[in-house]
Amino acid sequence: MKSKTNNLFYFIPYGLWLLLFVMAPVALIVYHSFLNLNQHFTLDNYITYFKSGTYLMMTLNSLWYALLITVATLLISYPTAYLLSNLKHKQLWLLLIILPTWINLLLKAYAFIGIFSQSGVANQFLTFIGIGPQQLLFTNFSFIFVATYIQIPFMILPIFNSIEDLNQSYINASHDLGATSWQTFRKVIWPMTLPGVKAGVQSVFIPSLSLFMLTRLIGGNKVITLGTAIEEHFLITMNWGMGSTIGVVLIVAMVVIMIFTGESKTRGGVPK
Amino acid sequence: MKRLLSLLLGIAAICVLLAFSANKLQSTSGDSSAKVLNLYNWGDYIDPALITKFQKETGYHVNVETFDSNEAMFTKIKQGGTSYDLTVPSDYMIEKMRAAHLLKPLDKSRLTGFANLDARFTNQSFDPHNRYSVPYFWGTLGIIYNDQSIKPEEVQHWNDLWQPKFKNKIMLIDSTRDVLGFSLVSMNQSMNTTNPAILKAAQAKLNRLSPNVKAVVADEIKMYMTENEAPLAVDWSGEASEMIANNPHLHYVVPTEGSNLWFDNLVIPKTAKHYKAIYAFLNFMLKPENAAQNAEYIGYATPNKKAKALLPKSIRNDKQFYPSDRTIANLQVYSDLSPHTIGLYNDLYLEFKMNHH
């Protein structure tokens, strides 16, 4: 009996947090999404969203860029995490990868403006090797590059952890039974590290959906995502209803992604 | 159980601390004691030396707080809990605040020096007879070019921007009404158009500008232009003066066919309390020598005629920031459009941004 009340007490801080900073804001967003400019209850915002090609295009755009960023991040992170786990001072190397996340995102974005600008370091190098200065800023390439750079630590960490958890004897067994390296990777390592990959994809894809500062600073507004639209509706048109509606759509999209990448308990998976 | 107790105590302590600091913060956002003036201004929008001078002359202590957008300022004043005595909204926002009953009318009998102001900049549509506002600075929207690659005669008019030779060379300020606005002017239409068909046509014209648009950016435009990232930009005069100060190759043009004329005016929000200090400050800022000093520091155009006469010749005769009467006659002030129309502007603008790849 006592332990039960104890548990309840322990739940108080977390419960309060959940209520005040998770449920209340989400409820407010949902509430606002049903209000029009005159604060009347309406479904118009949703009708506008799904009827106007602009918002649907923007949604596709956001999904597409988030996908590109996630794939790019994964392609770099997986081998890196694998390499890290085989190094001697892996905690130190890991720390070096986490280190940039301590720096403010805006500062990093401004640093990249300096690197990619016409007279920046990147163009100085291109001139030096004889290619000549190129337009780097305001291209899809630079946008995906910078977004990937920013997201990499969030992908490496979960993958690194799942590779760390990998039992070396499974790999040895696989080799002993005559599997090639590729087969070992495909049949043993990849399935066993998949939970880490899924966690990484979640923590990269979802924030990438609503990037808005980078789209302007690095993308020069050539890349428009739903985040841009939300920013405009809240700050310029002051149409909080429409902004909230886009927010709700984003939240729903995120839930869908969580479901797709979430761990399925029924399948059992590989034993540890 | 003991650990739990200390945990709860810890939370309680944090709550008390938060409540205390919130209380403290609130009292600092606008002191309500007697000999003070709470000025709510844009960031770096008054010469600090003038504040010192005002404090010395009158004995009032000035608290300055800053905002970075008209909308943020509007929300904060509307929500209450502040005691700002003066703030500096732009033209359309004055109209909006007036409609929302957030402004106190000026007592003209307590103002000295209102006659120093240029009659061209008083009695504007957003505040007829200046019942609520005293002009502080004014400016325009225009084209900035770099003389290293662009000749002055190539960019005298808005339509010049559409020339194919400027492919991927123009940066636009990320502002709905300004971007749609210059497209409207280039079609000989009003910048306050509410006609959806005309707005759509303006957007279609902008879409044809897309190949020339290198980027649509905000404050960063100053840095990009200074560092020669692009040779052309559309931005406000105030921003232009900062760029020119950092890169002498840059020049600013206000197309003679018209552009936006904007104002930042001093107003008394309904939260005001210190009327003596308010009028002392307004009269202080209306004095020609003070207005001139402020204009020289900020680099924007002063609406104070007598102050302008005190400015150095190089500033006073600068056609970039004090355009000719003929150009001024063609300038248009934004009016506060209905939320529905603003929504339409914004949707069209978003579509334009989406179309430009």
TrEMBL record, chain A:
<keyword id="KW-0812">Transmembrane</keyword>
<keyword id="KW-0813">Transport</keyword>
<keyword id="KW-0472">Membrane</keyword>
<dbReference type="InterPro" id="IPR000515">
    <property type="entry name" value="MetI-like"/>
</dbReference>
<feature type="transmembrane region" description="Helical">
    <location>
        <begin position="238"/>
        <end position="260"/>
    </location>
</feature>
<feature type="transmembrane region" description="Helical">
    <location>
        <begin position="63"/>
        <end position="85"/>
    </location>
</feature>
<keyword id="KW-1003">Cell membrane</keyword>
<protein>
    <recommendedName>
        <fullName>ABC transmembrane type-1 domain-containing protein</fullName>
    </recommendedName>
</protein>
<comment type="similarity">
    <text>Belongs to the binding-protein-dependent transport system permease family. CysTW subfamily.</text>
</comment>
<feature type="transmembrane region" description="Helical">
    <location>
        <begin position="92"/>
        <end position="116"/>
    </location>
</feature>
<feature type="transmembrane region" description="Helical">
    <location>
        <begin position="136"/>
        <end position="160"/>
    </location>
</feature>
<dbReference type="GO" id="GO:0005886">
    <property type="term" value="C:plasma membrane"/>
</dbReference>
<dbReference type="InterPro" id="IPR035906">
    <property type="entry name" value="MetI-like_sf"/>
</dbReference>
<feature type="domain" description="ABC transmembrane type-1">
    <location>
        <begin position="59"/>
        <end position="261"/>
    </location>
</feature>
<dbReference type="Pfam" id="PF00528">
    <property type="entry name" value="BPD_transp_1"/>
</dbReference>
<keyword id="KW-1133">Transmembrane helix</keyword>
<feature type="transmembrane region" description="Helical">
    <location>
        <begin position="12"/>
        <end position="34"/>
    </location>
</feature>
<dbReference type="GO" id="GO:0055085">
    <property type="term" value="P:transmembrane transport"/>
</dbReference>
UniProtKB/TrEMBL annotation, chain B:
<keyword id="KW-0813">Transport</keyword>
<dbReference type="InterPro" id="IPR001188">
    <property type="entry name" value="Sperm_putr-bd"/>
</dbReference>
<keyword id="KW-0574">Periplasm</keyword>
<dbReference type="Pfam" id="PF13416">
    <property type="entry name" value="SBP_bac_8"/>
</dbReference>
<protein>
    <submittedName>
        <fullName>Uncharacterized protein</fullName>
    </submittedName>
</protein>
<dbReference type="InterPro" id="IPR006059">
    <property type="entry name" value="SBP"/>
</dbReference>
<feature type="signal peptide">
    <location>
        <begin position="1"/>
        <end position="21"/>
    </location>
</feature>
<keyword id="KW-0732">Signal</keyword>
<dbReference type="GO" id="GO:0015846">
    <property type="term" value="P:polyamine transport"/>
</dbReference>
<dbReference type="GO" id="GO:0019808">
    <property type="term" value="F:polyamine binding"/>
</dbReference>
<feature type="binding site">
    <location>
        <position position="92"/>
    </location>
    <ligand>
        <name>spermidine</name>
    </ligand>
</feature>
<dbReference type="GO" id="GO:0042597">
    <property type="term" value="C:periplasmic space"/>
</dbReference>
